[in-house]
Amino acid sequence: MATLSATGAxxxxxxxxxxxxLHALLEQRLERPVEVREPLVLIxxxxxSGGTLLSQLLDAxxxxxxxxxELHIGYPRDKRDWPRLDLTExxxxxxxxxREAHVDRMLVGGYRKYARKWVxxxxxxxxxxxxxxxxxxxxxxxxxCAGSWAIERQRDVLDAYMTSYFNAWIDNRNxxxxxxxxxxxxxxxxxxxxxxxxxxxxDYPDGRLVAIVREPRSWYGSALAYNAxxxxxxxxxxxxxxxxxxxxxDAKRRFGDRVFLIAFERMLADTxxxxxxxxxxLGVDFTPALITPxxxxxxxxxxxxxxxxxxxxxxxxxxxHEGLPAEALETIDRLTDGLYDRVLALxx
Amino acid sequence: MRVLIVLGRDGFGCGVESVVAALDVQGHxxxxxxxxxxxxxxxxxxxxxxxxxxxxxxxxRRVRARLPAGRRWLAELRRRGPEVVVACPLLDRYAQAxxxxxxxxxxxxxxxxxxxxxxxxxxxxxxxxxxxxxxPRLAREARxxxxxxxxxxxxxxASAFDRWFAGGPTKPRAEVCxxxxxxPHGPYVLHAGSTRQGVHLEVLRGALEADARTRGLAVAAAxxxxxxxxxxxxxxxxxxxxxxxxxxxxxxAAIADRPCVMLAADRRSADAPVRARLQHLVKGRFxxxxxxxxxxxTTLGDLLDGSDQRAAMRRRFLSTFVRPVALDRPAGEVVAxxxxxxxxxxVRPPEPVLPSRRAALPGRAKVGKARQPPTEExxxxxxxxxxxxxxxPVRQPLAxxxxxxxxxDLLIRLLDGHPQAHVRAGRLHPGDGDPPTWPRLDLRAxxxxxWQALQDPEETAGRAxxxxxxxxxxxxxxxxxxxCVQSWPIERQRDVLDACTTAYFxxxxxxxxxxxxxxxxxxxxxxELGLRPGDxxxxxxDYPDGRLVAVVEPPAGPEDAAAGRWxxxxxxxxxxxxxxxxxxxxxxxxxxxxxxxxxxxxxARWLGIDFDPVLCRATFNRMPVAAPAGxxxxxxxxxxxxLYEQLVSAAG
Lengths: 348, 652
Hints:
The complex is a heterodimer.
Chain A: H1 19-31, E1 40-43, H2 51-58, E2 64-70, H3 91-98, H4 102-109, H5 135-148, H6 154-168, E3 182-186, H7 194-203, E4 208-213, H8 216-226, H9 228-231, H10 234-255, E5 259-263, H11 264-269, H12 271-282, E6 294-295, E7 298-299, H13 326-336, H14 339-344
Parallel strand pairs in A: 1-3, 1-4, 2-3, 4-5
Antiparallel strand pairs in A: 6-7
Helix pairs in contact in A: 5-6, 8-10, 10-13
Chain B: E1 2-7, H1 16-25, E2 29-33, H2 54-65, H3 71-80, E3 84-88, H4 93-104, E4 109-112, E5 130-133, H5 136-146, E6 153-155, H6 162-165, H7 173-180, E7 188-192, H8 197-210, E8 218-221, H9 229-238, E9 241-244, H10 247-256, E10 260-263, H11 264-268, H12 272-283, E11 287-290, H13 293-304, H14 311-322, H15 331-345, H16 365-370, H17 376-385, E12 398-404, H18 408-415, E13 421-427, H19 447-454, H20 474-487, H21 493-507, E14 521-525, H22 533-542, E15 547-552, H23 563-579, E16 584-588, H24 589-594, H25 596-607, E17 619-620, E18 623-624, H26 638-651
Parallel strand pairs in B: 1-2, 1-3, 3-4, 4-5, 5-6, 7-8, 7-9, 9-10, 10-11, 12-14, 12-15, 13-14, 15-16
Antiparallel strand pairs in B: 17-18
Helix pairs in contact in B: 1-15, 3-4, 7-9, 8-13, 9-10, 20-21, 23-26
């Protein structure tokens, strides 16, 4: 049984553990943290393209530290910005800038990725997965790392942050296995902006950018079902899709071997082949864990805009364009003419 | 009492008729005021006119309340002289203007909110003394969208649908079918579509024709509710099912107890206010949502076959959403009572000044970052919530690693990390006996007594090889144990042992092998536990599917004080091997230390698990650790030597 409760709601009569017990447990982690200083594999493209699926496929790989949620370390605005820290400000300000809000929320309610904003099927369980990341421990770990390490570049601060994140995540079931090669993290749209891409590779010259391209009709069908208010206008929505596709072409041209493009349709139809290709690209072993989406090692259902009957990788998203109005399809074809094929030619 | 009801743009959609009737029955004088000409209104997606918190919204309303009202409305109200003014619907420019004038004149005011006022219609510029909402869910929406103070909200039910509760259909089936153009002798599906009704109607017809069970099933287009509300209800009442995306038709179906199917495409093509209403209906869970026409046809086929699984949800929807006060009491009566109550209470004090607070609006992620982190107590509570009510059951059979001389700890470190085995951190030491003995529990005793008998104080002390972290929460362990013994049937001692094992692995917070994998065994080192006849019987009694894995190390020598104990253990092992040949395996510690691979390969085969290279590396919770020290060079002779040779030959 993977769920905390149907709603993830706290149980009111719960008495907390004694303070000494919590301190004793956390001190162990504080005294001997696992350093997480591996380069980052950033997964980024427009939403509804399979970024969550890919991060879940990477979740349990023993050579990866997989960030379990969408990466929200953006600063100064929010997740739209790759962080721009002032290295003179000190650990307290750095941590405040990078700290991810989902940590507090998930401490209380667990992890629940649920794409649909409108439709909830009656017999469909909203599965909530345990996620225990102690915020105070994360802060102490970050301050300890940032205070004791030589902080010469923004990358050092990011390393301290990643170390604090993965070690403060007490029930992280993939912390000790190793040796690790990469950290993986998914952040929708972040890498569409060229300045963000430049800053990412400046911090992680050894990092990798992975982007997924989804066939525009299928993408629009999914986006529309996800949020018809936001994506109801095909003209505006497809311009976003096109910006994402153009960004992939530009990233591939600019950063070459450090960028890996994946075709969403192939990832679904031939998950093993796609993941073998990605494993080769990253230089990690191919393991069966790479073809099963999981959260912290627990099998998880798809983050779909549509009803999900079972876990694992689905092929139904390939048919999301069915039922779209003819005029919408016409707009899609007009705005994406040839672009999809150009990106597809660059996929691995 | 003189009640003035101000009807806005589509006031009759609010069900004001039943309210007027109820007020009339109570003897009140009701005056209805409607605009002379259609009044435009602006739809806003958020319910707020500008991005701001509750305090800002309230402040703006306070300022507006001081502005002069329209002279025309002031004169009209003075002329009519009502004791209470009711706006219907609440969010309407015309009704708001009259409410503002009533407020300026010091008249008590009330507003009847509809089911889309919380999400899609315009801003609330004048706050009435009472806001009447259908149900608690809409009350919450009203608080969130319009910053309406909690004490001004009154739940009344939806008077708009009172007319359909009055009885059955108004027309006979034959007449209704004739008007719909369908065969009165056969079933039909009433399709009440959205704006693309025509398109989806044909699509649905095509899908029904393609399905053998629904071929020939008639599909009729529903009358528009605004034009012919009774006609719609009649058509719904006689239908086999209702499809489409028309909210009122679905409510009518719930009242007439007809099954509903919604086509996802219908819903997508609806405009924002309709989608807002459909959202409430979908949450009511009485509608089958079909992702495509073929699925809709399948669902309708099931319904024709008599499989109507959402009947109970329809009734629940009515009692929670449409008439939450009382299912058998017209909502119009409740609204009338609320209006009277509002008048009796008089004009409320001005809207209070709220403490400034930044509202969590879309695109304001940094607001979340600025939120205060959880307190320490919240963190401690969260710690216990992990697996508290939903532990991962660990009920696999036990592979008890026992030893003659030593070597059990080495073997357990080699087994650690295997994806098909749960491996305990330290030695199994139930109770406080020395040496430990296999537990014998009184199943009639309380769970607390079982816990005392099974608890190992040494293991919870957080000791691990090489100082590796070992995050076991004793409080969580006890909670999980209590949960298991309370929720599982406890018929055998094994059930209690399973509860104890489940508690142990679930409370081990950083245990790396809890999820995933296909665990076949729980592996634990027991020292010499399990060798003595009594222990052995107890072990195999509790775990008939269990295994005893004995590691043998030669005795330290004839002069060693422990030689007698070694000999006793060796004899016990030989005895165990003779009694349970297929469930006892002997492993030579020396062979294990020399080359672990073939030994572990054989052991994996015997246990029925895959050989994994991790079996040849000493790890603790998947972290590499130094292997426990090997045997010293020892001279073995005499009786002990013979026994050792016997055991080693048994190891193969």
